[in-house]
Amino acid sequence: MLTLALATLLAFLVPVSAAAQTSGVSRTILPNGLTVLVRENREAPVVAYSLMVKMGTRTETPDNAGISNLLQQMLVRGTEKLDGEQIAEAADRMGGGIDAYGDVDYSEITATALSRNWQEMLDLLGDCVLRPTLPDGTVQAVRNFLARQIRNRGDKPFDVASDRMRAALFGSNPYAWDPFGRRASVEKLDREALIAYYRRFYVPGQMVLAVSGDVKSADVVAQVQRIFGSMAPGKVEMPAVPAPPPMVASREVIVVPGAQAQIFMGALAPSLTEADHPPLKVLTAVLGGGMASRFFSELRDQQALAYTTLAQYPSRVDTSAFVAILGTAPENVTKAEPALAEQLERIRNQAASEDEVAVARAYVVGSQAMDRRTNARQAWYLAFYEVAGVGYEFLDRYAAAVKQVTPADVQRVARKYLSVVRTVIVQPN
Questions:
Q1: Is the Cα torsion angle 381, 149, 137, 236 positive or negative in sign?
Q2: Alpha-carbon gap, residue 83 to 372, rounded angstroms
């Protein structure tokens, strides 16, 4: 385990880095409502783009689950000027790449290029956003590919456990399904549905373009205005999101092909805007954040009850989930399940030590700082927090809040959110 001295050093250094990386970012809102964020970084001759839209699993229904991801896949597979292969070749010539996908609270088109080609890449990005053709034959091919990917999840124990846990926790809430969607709904999607969905959500006021790299802010804003300024402003009626079902204890066992068993224990958790978000992040690190965590050191190393250990608590616009995860040998399930439950009971009933919480705080802030080392990840963070409605400055507020978390805070949120859990166990047949 890391020493307190090292944890304190990390906790001291990381906020300085975080502040340096969030200061100096410019925010411009075009007349039509599109938000442009630019971070100038001269350290390398590269530039990265993240264009995010407030559109994802959260804006879907059971009938069109997966439409956000399918639409994103199609945007980079054909425009009025270029087909999918030509788009990829053009990005290659610029020394970078372009891709797109749908996620839970957002959808993203991500791109990188050498800085000498930054305007050309911005034009290519604009072409994909403004003039997609969504050719019917390609829609069918991509749709069928995604449907196969969804079907294949049923053969992977970890994916099965993840999907069943989401369904148990969220019920009719759209967070109940993976961004890939549901096979039955994806197989029904056609070009007309994609066009309607595109027109509904690709509205400037719902879009954020973040740029990080060897560029000048004024130049970027001028070119973004030239490319995207003609988009008509508009309003989007965001769909009502059903509340997740109340938490009740449950236990489900599923048998699928495989060599390893998966044990998931989960509970509903606060959104990223709630005051309990930072202490629950620290709790997550105490239990399952790397090699210094309790799951790794005690369940894996000391008791030899797991191949893999993990605790997840993703940042979500709405109600999120905390999930404790063990991957273990089938014959160990009878011992590993109560051992995992005991870890959750212990964090509720016994306060973690000051040293342990210091290490967890440093892990939370430090791992995020490490993740922002590239321009692509810098752009992602800027765009994500802006789309989430908290502003890119949230990075600094979040790091400061994490540094204030105490052992009492950790125990308080453990009691509040982990007293009742749902359990999903996937056993190989």
A1: negative
A2: 32
